[in-house]
Design goal:
5-stranded parallel β-sheet, two-stranded antiparallel ribbon, 8 helices, 7 strands, binds adenosine-5'-triphosphate, binds magnesium ion, Thymidylate_kin-like_dom, kinase activity, EC 2.7.4.9, ATP-binding
């Protein structure tokens, strides 16, 4: 049973276009949290649970109707919240998540053009727990011009269904992310991800130390 004396953990999401450097920086943040002795888990979307990982494989590889794509994203998210994220936060652990709902707004909304009212309805269904909307406490948006991020991933591996989209798609995804950030400035921090890895890490160090200090005060 949940011990009421354990303070709820903090929820951090990492966002940005494909190849922005999310996974690279997420593993640095993971090490930083460990060095700060902050109990945490690392997870990702779509995925994070055994069923979610199966949905991820379908989402990244199978052609499908764009509304099916949005519904599967939220189905995976429902499973993830119930099975992984909420229990971890209740145990007092921090959750470090590679993408969350902002990615659905950016990709299925900005990228594919599905109206945002659809996501708002699904978000209420999946993330509203007794009147409280579960959202990340902090969202790090790694912002980079798509031509820079595309050049990075073209070198590193075979591209998935989203990564193969045209440059205009990635530009719309980027703009939709920036719009989400403007709408929720209290939880978003925009990080210029076009800079070298170590420079970004120095900024993350300052940003996270300050934020953790503030949020735990
Ligand atoms: N700041 C950076 N400068 C140059 N190269 C970088 C930078 N950050 C990451 N990379 C390189 O770019 C590639 C993509 O990085 P990474 O996998 O971290 O991106 P991602 O945002 O997680 O991508 P995806 O959305 O596809 O998972 C990797 O080869 C990585 O080493
Ligand atoms: Mg990644």
């Amino acid at each position: 049973m949940h011990n009421q004396l354990v303070p709820r953990g903090r929820f951090i999401s990492v966002e940005g276009v494909d190849g922005a450097g999310k996974s690279t920086q997420l593993s640095w943040i993971d090490r930083w949290l460990t060095s700060e002795k902050i109990a945490h888990i690392v997870t990702r979307e779509p995925g994070g649970t055994p069923l979610g990982e199966k949905l991820r494989a379908l989402l990244l590889n199978e052609p499908m109707h764009l509304e099916t794509e949005a519904l599967l994203m939220f189905a995976s998210r429902r499973e993830h919240l119930a099975g992984i994220i909420e229990p971890a936060l209740a145990r007092g652990e921090w959750v470090l998540c590679d993408r969350f709902s902002d990615a659905t707004y950016a990709y299925q909304g900005g990228g594919r053009g599905l109206p945002k009212e659809k996501f708002e309805a699904l978000e209420r269904w999946v993330q509203d727990r007794g009147g409280e909307m579960i959202q990340p406490d902090l969202t790090l948006l790694f912002d980079v011009p798509p031509e820079v991020s595309q050049a990075r991933i073209a070198k590193s591996r075979e591209l998935d269904r989203f990564e193969r989209e045209a440059a205009s798609f990635h530009e719309r995804v980027r703009n939709a992310y920036l719009e989400r950030a403007r709408a929720a400035p209290h939880r978003f921090r925009i990080v210029n991800a076009a800079r070298p890895i170590e420079v970004i890490q120095q900024e993350l160090h300052v940003l996270l130390s300050g934020w953790a200090h503030e949020t735990l005060a």
